[in-house]
Amino acid sequence: MFVKISEQPSLYNDLEKKSVREILEDINTEDQKVALAVQRAIPQIEKLVTQIVPRMKQGGRIFYMGAGTSGRLGVLDASEIPPTFGMPPTLVIGLIAGGDTALRNPVENAEDDIHRGWEELTERNITDKDTVIGIAASGTTPYVIGAMHEAREHGILTGCITSNPDSPMAAEADVAIEMIVGPEYVTGSSRMKSGTGQKMILNMITTSVMIQLGRVKGNKMVNMQLSNKKACGPWYPYDCRGTRTGLWQSQGAAVDARFGEKGSGCVPDLAITHS
Asked: Among residues 31, 6, 33, which one has the least CA distance to residue 137?
């Protein structure tokens, strides 16, 4: 029988009577359970990533689907791929029920539309090289479930991230990542432990995929977009400062002009290639 563990009563009571210190320590105690729940899900995360990589090498994309906090986290992770790894914004795409408006404001009933998710995927010409990953703490969001069902019917790889075992969403996933973090500190507030765990898993998925696609050399980002001075620090990829010293120096003037600072030690992302 399907049980929504994520919506069960908190293990704590009389929160309004606690001191600030007690509240913070309680939340921290609960947060420590998240990393362990994610650790237990690593075999499923690995299974999903190993199926995504060959698809992306053939031109496939990742689509995150979610509503509310889950949708926002998907959009957040997708939006960090271009500046971090120099990939176009069309390769990892976050879709949220209600569209971009829902990033800041609730859109009534958007998550209950079981057809809209698939419509949004077809508008983006989804193919069987792509991957659809549903994100929902409860595992019951119609917007996500409908999209995953249709995707699977069309031979598209589906995965999901949920905080409840054996959910309806997991039933539509080729690979279900079930991260069981237990009841939330504030009953039903899945923006807390569930949201934290979702972000950790999204980090793991895209970072491991990008490493497998050659976007990291040694332990540093390559093809990173130089959008600010911070990106020009000494941690910039060793291969451009070590094995490509001449190229690095030849680009210095252009970068100095861009950021108005000499000795920045940067090269444009397009100048860094794999040998």
From this structure: 6
- 263 contacts 253 by C-beta, under 8 angstroms: no
Q: Rounded to an integer, what distance in angstroms lies between the CA atom of residue 265 and that of residue 231?
A: 10
Catalytic residues: 80, 111
Question: CA 159, CA 130: separation in Å to the nearest integer?
Answer: 11
Separation of alpha carbons 133 and 204, rounded Å: 13
How is residue 201 written in tokens? Answer: 């898993």
∠ CA 49-138-169, rounded to 5°: 55
The answer to whether 78 and 63 are in contact (CB under 8 A) is no
pLDDT score of 229: 63
Distance of CA 9 to the CA centre of its chain: 28
- The H or E element containing residue 160 is strand 157-162
Nearest to 14 by CA among 192, 191, 185: 185
Going by C-alpha positions, the residue among 169, 184, 196, 172 that lies closest to residue 69 is: 196
Q: Which tokens in the block code for residue 180?
A: 């069981």
Q: How far is Cα of residue 121 from the mean position of the Cα atoms in its chain?
A: 18
**pLDDT tens, position by position, 31-80:** 999 999 999 999 999 999 999 999 999 999 999 999 999 999 999 999 99
pLDDT at residue 226 is higher than 90: no
Yes or no: say if 198 and 135 are a contact pair by the CB < 8 Å rule.
yes
The whole-model pTM stands at 0.84
What gap in Å lies between CA 134 and CA 71, rounded to an integer? Answer: 9
C-alpha 101/C-alpha 75 separation (Å) is 12
